[in-house]
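Hi all, posting the design record for the shared folder.

TITLE: backbone redesign
STEP: 1 of 1
STRUCTURE INPUT:
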């Protein structure tokens, strides 16, 4: 699988990445065995970029990901986590469930801290949970929620200093608000932005301003949420599919249904079109996949390498379903994998199969 460098850094990411919110029990509980299977499936597919955050399952995603990757050479994969929310023990939450959508006990609480000291504490805590000696990419997580001024004036300078000291290889910001990301692109020297759900086959609000700014400034895009939380994840979207982690509005469902119909007419599927489109813009370095099911991961990795025919994109534009200046996709280049069975993906001495070179 091809790799791209992030911004002006030396850090590289594969064309597909794995987002670990799902193995932090987002929306539903996931067993250790299922978490192991999906991470192994990602590795076998050639994915070498893994993203996580303290927010995901109150640290569960970091602990699981660290354990599951502990048996492979650290230099063979790229790892990102996030700062902004610091986890604080909360004994009073014992017996309750986390109120922010993760199926985990609320034995800790999230505290916003975008100070320089908070950034360093968050990274130190993440390293302990992950069990590694370094993080390749550090992203400020949802700065508009934690305090945009503090993110710009305190968190960013702290990350900039850590990058200068080579403690971190690359720095950036993650948000679903493209306007916030554009401000960081324009006012700072970040390497990457993680854009969540704002450049997808369903909608492209980031296309006119944010993505051209990224190209001009040499900032890479980590494109996440490319199924819009589920609405584009099946060949036939319907009203019980989620959008933005909630109920899908009727207008969005109707739009997705029409795109799906055009997909069928051109011998492709809605997930395949969504995946290939998400990685087509020259600013996009990787498309981040988030799933807790190994079979879905394998299927999506296959779909991402087979774009729809050119006529498909022309018809979408003609019907007003796609921005006319949106770049159309080409296939993601894959390499053949050599897959040897592993004894147990839940053990710390796991050896995932390596891609042939």
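Okay, here is what came back for every position:
SEQUENCE:
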């Amino acid at each position: 699988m091809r790799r791209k460098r992030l911004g002006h850094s030396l850090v590289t990411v594969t064309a597909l990445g794995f987002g670990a919110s799902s193995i932090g029990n987002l929306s539903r509980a996931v067993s250790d065995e299922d978490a192991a299977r999906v991470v192994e499936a990602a590795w076998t597919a050639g994915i070498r970029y893994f993203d996580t955050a303290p927010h995901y399952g109150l640290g569960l995603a970091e602990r699981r990901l660290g354990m599951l990757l502990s048996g492979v050479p650290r230099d063979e994969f790229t790892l990102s986590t996030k700062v902004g929310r610091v986890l604080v023990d909360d004994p009073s939450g014992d017996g309750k469930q986390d109120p922010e959508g993760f199926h985990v006990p609320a034995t800790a609480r999230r505290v916003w801290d975008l100070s320089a000291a908070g950034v360093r504490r968050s990274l130190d805590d993440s390293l302990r949970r992950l069990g590694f000696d370094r993080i390749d990419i550090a992203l400020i997580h949802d700065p508009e929620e934690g305090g945009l001024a503090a993110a710009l004036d305190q968190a960013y300078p702290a990350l900039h200093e850590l990058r200068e000291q080579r403690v971190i290889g690359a720095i950036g910001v993650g948000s679903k608000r493209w306007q916030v990301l554009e401000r960081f692109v324009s006012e700072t020297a970040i390497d990457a932005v993680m854009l969540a759900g704002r450049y997808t086959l369903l909608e492209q609000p980031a296309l006119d301003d944010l993505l051209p700014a990224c190209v001009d400034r040499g900032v890479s895009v980590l494109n996440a949420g490319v199924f819009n939380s589920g609405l584009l994840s099946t060949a036939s979207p319907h009203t019980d599919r989620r959008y933005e982690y909630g109920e899908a509005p009727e207008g969005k469902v109707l739009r997705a249904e029409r795109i799906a119909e055009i997909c069928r007419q051109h011998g492709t599927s809605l997930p395949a079109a969504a995946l290939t489109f998400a990685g087509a813009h020259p600013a996009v370095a990787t498309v981040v996949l988030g799933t807790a099911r190994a079979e879905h991961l394998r299927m999506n990795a296959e779909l991402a390498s087979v774009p729809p025919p050119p006529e498909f994109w022309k018809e979408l534009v003609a019907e007003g379903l796609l921005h006319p200046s949106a770049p159309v996709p080409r296939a993601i280049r894959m390499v053949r994998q050599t897959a040897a069975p592993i004894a147990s993906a839940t053990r710390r001495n796991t050896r995932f199969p390596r891609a042939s070179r």
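COMMENT: The chain has a mean pLDDT of 91.
Let me know if anyone wants the other runs.
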